[in-house]
Amino acid sequence: MTLSVAPARAQEQDAEGCKDYPLFSRMPNFYIYDCASVEFDARKFPVGQPVVDLKTKQVEVEGALIFLKYELKAGSKPVSGLQVMRNFENAAKKAGGSIEGRYPEWCKATGEFDSRLGNECTNWGLTMKFISSGKEVWTYLQMTGESSYGMQIIERQEMKQDIVISAADLQQGLAATGHIAVYDILFDTGKSEIKPESDAALQEIAKLLTQTPALKLHVVGHTDNVGDLAMNMNCPRHGPPPSLPF
Prior knowledge:
Layout: E1 30-52, E2 55-72, H1 81-94, E3 98-110, E4 121-132, E5 135-145, E6 148-156, H2 167-177, H3 199-211, H4 229-233
Antiparallel strand pairs: 1-2, 2-6, 3-4, 4-5, 5-6
Helix pairs in contact: 2-3
């Protein structure tokens, strides 16, 4: 039996399916050791300086999550945490991004625990925010070892609603209680235009009305809790009631 050892460089290529996030290049002589992406998730980003017991204010951001972890190639000149942090800080400012939190050295602040980035202590950590192509992007960078760093990136967005009440559910609810709540008809605050993601729910309501033409409904709408009472009660200020597509 013959055993062979693959060259070290073959193990230092980017992990399969991994690539740099478009907003950032990587530090020289680093490769992507690990990556992951989720269509919708939430992360808390540390912002500002620690207030008490190393705790900072945290901003929770929801949207598409991308995680990237970089390792230094064997034989390459070592880099310091300050060097990595400063490179990204300068690049972010040059690209028009803002620095929301800056945590030099080890454990000068604490954040949300994520084992892929270490423990809850910051380690040359940097929170950055960008507005790119109309999209808000939050990024947290920190050293994960002497020769590695990780990045959590969230493209802020609302969740795509995958589960929508059906015409049969609507009919069953009305028959059982005489009323039913539909939560999937959405508007922006202060506006009367129905958002496109409401289409699926409206189609199910249209289907119910088509299947039961004798059905007569009383429709009640509710505002959100943004703005004062006078604003939310003053319907004409926001234009005429929306026309429904059925």
